Amino acid sequence: MATYDALGTTYARTRQPDSRIAAQIHAALGNVTDVINVGAGTGSYEPPRTVLAIEPSQVMIAQRPQRSAPAVQAVAENLPLRDNAADAVMALLTVHHWTDLTAGISELRRVARSRIVILTWDQHIFRERFWLVRDYLPEAAAFDDARAIPTDHLLDLLGGGRQEPVWVPHDCTDGFGAAYWRRPHAYLDPQVRAGISMLAQTSEDTITPGLTQLADDLRTNRWHTRHAELLALETIDVGYRLLVTDH
Ligand SMILES: C[S@@+](CC[C@H](N)C(=O)[O-])C[C@H]1O[C@@H](n2cnc3c(N)ncnc32)[C@H](O)[C@@H]1O
Fold this sequence. Notes:
By secondary structure, this protein is α/β, with parallel strands linked by helices. The chain contains 13 helices and 9 strands. A 7-stranded mixed β-sheet has the order 3-2-1-4-5-9-6, with helices on both faces. The model has no long low-confidence stretch (mean pLDDT 96). The structure holds S-adenosylmethionine.
């Protein structure tokens, strides 16, 4: 069973694509003619030129909007596609889930004619700048330490490329890990946590003490006092990165 058959049942509810991040991803894709989305999930951020989605979880495929690109149930490590199948391939917030990263990236390079776009995050920056994992849930950060992929390593596997920061708006509609950086109460909501794999895959027992502390700090306004500067910000860079490579 694919991991997201269990994790992804409420994905479409809390993980709506954010228009500002979509604009950045689409700009990074440029004017390529066709796009294949690998680790596509429910289809977030697919531009109209998307011709195919690759996704191992049937639960995620079932949540794709009607009229989105056709989806094939498969994994990145073994793409059922010919060489140079599309102008561009994108893989968004997925590479950390793959069982064989080297094989998966090599498949992306085989299938993409000209451009690959990957959305991932820099775990060092994330750990340092994101208050939730730094101050309350170090266990969740430790879980991510084990699976996060250094962006330099990814760029090596890709054969080079550039990386750009993806700033997270305070009202981000895509409820990934740090999306609620200025809406701390959201992390107390089990449905929100279910859409964030670092929290959904760390046991409730492990994260309960940190969440209890957060609830207390919110109730007493300690969180607001400590993070007053965050409340004045519109966007934040906590380490999300877009990698763009041409070949
Ligand atoms: C956090 S979701 C991201 C989905 C989508 N790209 C998005 O941005 O909303 C991670 C996705 O990666 C998929 N995935 C897990 N292992 C995979 C693999 N080996 N190959 C391709 N996709 C995989 C999961 O099933 C899940 O749909």
